[in-house]
Design goal:
The protein is mainly alpha-helical and 292 residues long. The chain has eleven helices and no strands. The protein has helices spanning 17-39, 46-65, 72-101, 106-119, 121-131, 135-145, 154-174, 180-200, 207-239, 244-271, 274-286.
């Protein structure tokens, strides 16, 4: 069974935690900085926005994973800033997804383009503030210079640290996911564990590869439901702001998104059976993240 391409190279159960943490944080924060710069340009491309949002989540997952070993002040600063950048990018990303779905509706696409231009402005302001005095890079250097080294090697340390996260995820997956809020919370937890496995997965038993694959499947299946829900919500908000000529295409888009959301959620709930949940739990045990 091959290790996934996105997993951090050079990692094993015997690795020193500090060196893995330094490598993971440096690589992820560098990607955030690069994609923030690209996204802050006028008419930043949809791919850059998507990558920025994803690398913010990956970086935040790394900060949270290694938080007990990081300088508190810098860890708090990065947690806050990464969340702020991700949320700003998320507003633009939602509109990009909606624009992809509105190619056959020119009046709606025109209105969405206006809203996207407006939503992208906070990213430019964030980039300008973080570049002022080179604050992002200075904070990053301080963060990486002061990482503690625990007594345990990565295999034992990560099984203990990530095990709590895995147990919480199982609890979320056992709840009723009929409510969109519950499904969304479960999806975010799946993402976070998946991003953590990209760092420490090679230090765990090979079953972690299967866990990683299933987390990606879960993330995708719930994600398309959440995309439709986000579109429906934003269409409703736009409906209150636009003139009468734009309202009819928005009402049609709301009805279409609502119908798609209900259909996709129903399909996911049929797929996420008791047997599949039990198999997921067994994988986590085999990966050393839960006790049998």
């Amino acid at each position: 069974m091959h290790r996934p391409e996105k997993w951090q190279p050079g990692v094993s159960a015997a690795s020193k935690v500090r060196s893995v943490a330094r490598q993971a944080l440096a690589a992820r924060l560098e990607r955030v900085g690069k994609n923030l710069k690209r996204s802050a340009q006028p008419q930043g491309q949809a791919d850059n926005i998507h990558r920025l949002r994803t690398w913010c989540r990956r970086s935040a997952a790394a900060v949270e994973l290694f938080r007990p070993l990081l300088p508190k002040k810098e860890a708090r600063w990065f947690a806050r800033k990464l969340k702020k950048i991700r949320q700003a990018a998320g507003d633009v990303r939602d509109l990009d997804v909606m624009l992809e779905q509105a190619t056959d509706n020119p009046p709606l696409a025109e209105e969405l383009t206006k809203q996207r231009d407006k939503a992208s402005q906070p990213l430019g302001k964030l980039h300008k503030r973080l570049q002022s005095g080179n604050e992002f890079d200075k904070r990053q250097r301080r963060l990486l210079a002061k990482i503690d080294q625990p007594k345990k090697r990565l295999g034992d340390w990560s099984a203990s640290r990530v095990g709590k996260q895995a147990a919480a995820l199982v609890g979320l997956g056992e709840r009723s996911l009929r409510a969109l809020e519950a499904a969304h919370e479960f999806r975010i937890a799946c993402k976070e564990l998946r991003y953590v496995l990209e760092i420490v997965g090679s230090a765990l038993p090979m079953a972690a590869v299967r866990v990683y694959a299933l987390l990606g499947d879960l993330q995708q299946r719930i994600g398309i439901v959440c995309d439709q829900a986000a579109a429906e919500k934003m269409y409703r908000e736009l409906l209150m702001k636009v003139g009468r000529p734009q309202r009819e295409p928005l009402r049609a888009a709301i009805a279409k998104a609502k119908k798609a959301r209900a259909k996709l959620l129903k399909a996911f709930l049929r797929w996420w059976t008791r047997g599949r949940r039990a198999a997921f739990h067994k994988m986590l045990v085999q990966a050393g993240l839960l006790e049998g």
